[in-house]
Amino acid sequence: MLALVAISVLIGALSQRITGMGFALVASPLIVILLGPFDGVLVVNLCGVISALLIIPRVWRLIEWRTFAWLVIPAIVAIVPGSLLAARLPGPILQLGVGVLVLVSLTATLLITRADHIVAARPAAIIAGAASGFMNTAAGVGGPALSVYAVLTCWSQAHFAATLQPYFVVVGTVSLTTKIIFSEGQLPQLDAASWIIIVGALLAGLALGEVLNRHISHRAARIGVIIIAYIGGTAAVIDGALHLSV
What we know:
By secondary structure, this protein is mainly α. 83% of the residues lie in helices and 0% in strands. α4 packs parallel to α8 (157-182).
């Protein structure tokens, strides 16, 4: 089981380095199946924070801090109900919800491939930030809502990917803190060796992504992320539904 978690983390970190997002999309569904919906999302949030922190120095000059602020403030507000939901829902229902949110978010991202008219950036940022914050803390998946925002506002890929890194640090940290508070201090039941393996896989994925970033196009990486995420989301839905029916 731990080996599968480590592989998921490695692939997620690799996609995060190449595309600017994708860690949660790739890693969350399988980790949720392996560790359970609450512990799994906590691990995904923590790994997402670490990976974003390590990427920030590489993209610092491209970060748009004003846009970051418009996204992160509503996201933080929306984290509270998302954390309450994650702490209160039964495991199978939460797992089913994670899978459904992954599939719906991916589909929305694919359907909105271009914007006929550029929407007003600030109202769109408030909506996208709130949706992303809620989904990040409830399901560990906050990126797709921001992808839709990027398309609707014609945000450049380079600045989009860079700005998401401090966003994921703040949102992931607040998500972790609120969920731990609302669950009365509940933490993933992993020993020190397991955490070392998970963090090692994360660092290996980022290092590999740094190398492959020069050779793999963003389009090819994005297609790979989408395929893996669809498979993982479908598996999470099926597994959650089966446990719900038992």
